[in-house]
Amino acid sequence: xxxxxNLRENxxxxxxxxxxxxxxxxxxxxxxxxxxxxxxxxxxxxFLPNPYWVADLRLKTGKDAAVADFVLESYEGxxxxxxxxxxxxxxxxxxLAAGKDILRxxxxxxxxxxxxxxxxxxxxxxxxxxxxxxxxxxxxxxxDTKALS
Length: 149
What we know:
With 149 residues, the protein is α/β, with parallel strands linked by helices. The protein is built from five helices and four strands, in the order H-H-E-E-H-H-E-H-E. A four-stranded parallel β-sheet has the order 2-3-1-4. Helix 3 (65-72) crosses helix 5 (115-126). The longest helix has 23 residues, at 75-97.
């Protein structure tokens, strides 16, 4: 305990706290596999155009440019991403100001292969250059691949 007191007295703890970045965890998931329980925010993107119903896109994922373009270049997709980028930057700033160390954002669609993956990939790219520690993953990508065929 005495060492911690000495660190505080020397203001070293304050210097270390100034360098703390927010960890942002972005991940996609499929609602059909259950909603995650360990999120600050869950967003449902099932309102976006669904590539599953387009034969040429069904077997691809949201990591493929053709799928991402189909979803995010639609009117709804473009407008949604504009609002979502603004909201995410606001959440990062306010969580940092509140002294939080992690922000977990889950993005869900039906199966977790197309729409949610495209949104997470695009959001992650938009955070390049931000002072956050970014983790991204796709919880359900690759599950039930026979259902895609």
